[in-house]
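Internal ticket - ligand job 440, pyridoxal-5'-phosphate:
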Amino acid sequence: MDYVADFRCVKCEVTTNDRSIKLCPVCGDGVYDIEFDLDAVTGKKMSQRLSTRANTMWRYSELLPVPFGAEKPSNPLGFTPMFECQSLGIWCGLESMYVKDETRNPSASFKDRASAVAVTHAKSIGQSTLACASTGNAAGSLGSMCANMGLNAVIFLPENAPDPKVIKLLAYGAKVVKVRAGYTRAYELCNEACAQYGWYNRNCAINPYLIEGKKTCGLEIAEQSLMNPFDWIVVSVGDGCTIAGIWKGLWQMHRLGILPKLPKMLGVQACGVSPIVKAFEGDVFNKSEWRKKNNTVSAFLDGSAEKPRKCVITTPECADNGTSTLADSINVDSPRNSIKALKALDESAGAAISVSDNEILKALHQCAKLTGVFPEPAAAASVAGLKRAKEAGVISNNDRVLVVITGSGLNDIQNAGKAVGKAITIDVDLTELNELYCER
Ligand SMILES: *Cc1c(COP(=O)(O)O)cnc(C)c1O
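stdout (structure tokens):
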């Protein structure tokens, strides 16, 4: 048994109690969102139970769409550390800031939360092969989770996928299929293969279970900040599932009466590839029926319901930044969870911003240097976005701000290399070193 109430299409809003993984047949292409019976969960009971549970993402079992007793990965996941980083805050123009370190998950990225729910759900419904198309962290995390659970992973990659990523997947025992084409075709072929062979589809664009794993990060942030809730949560955005998941978790904890105040969400994309920032700016979403109907959600933080909620910060540097980005994990030009992401920005009265690759590389180095957490470019984008938002006056210097570091620099070492300078090489005595240090 669980507390799932309904599956609701994010596009046409029709609900169903059919829990199979597919797009909404009514409008034809809407993704489902899983709704929970929060009145039945009750915040008071939830708080009591939480005090007795282990610190992993599974502590929120009432808010997860898998059976309570389901077999889960034995590798502990989630409940990643959150800590204050004053010096990085100062670099961003703030009195201080907090970081949530998602690099500490088993395959060193946030994606493990989604893959963990995927393998648990797949096993609970008797499926033994899971597939996804990805060049990066989604594939890595699925490989890792399937290895732990004794399940088969099939990963579709574009032929030009970089070797280190392929080797990691092969090490996990995944079946790696390189498609002689780009990512889009690999993605389509993966969906076809899932339909043909009945494999479990690990893809946020179709599978609504995955965002529920990502949601656990928001549930954790709520629990870790109860006494002093944040004003802003900063998250980088590719497909949009991550920011939507984190928001959903925060929202549920607020709705349960556990988190006293909701933060605003700052979504960060790269200048070259920023469809969600543009959609938010273009008011495409704000005019929707959904917005009219839900005008009271998270009541406009300053109380004036008339004020436009959108806030887009444009970066001068973006003008000449091309049409791509080195931040691989957020290089998504047709995001498949844009509605969910735009809702998160809108409901939270948040803001969207794009930053240049140059700013991302600078933020990568500063984050590693000032906190000891080594982010990949997509994760560092959030730090760069925070700095920009502070400069633009959207975030003020004494706001309480949390940045989610979504993935480790070790997952994309080549690009990280562009940010960090060079080592020095010396002969086998200390002469040159002495010269270097005496100069100081
Ligand atoms: C996937 C990913 C993101 C963005 O998540 P979306 O759900 O695609 O928006 C950000 N950072 C890292 C490290 C990622 O792997």
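Auto-summary: The first strand starts at residue 4 and ends at 9. Residues 115 and 256 are 26 Å apart (CA to CA).
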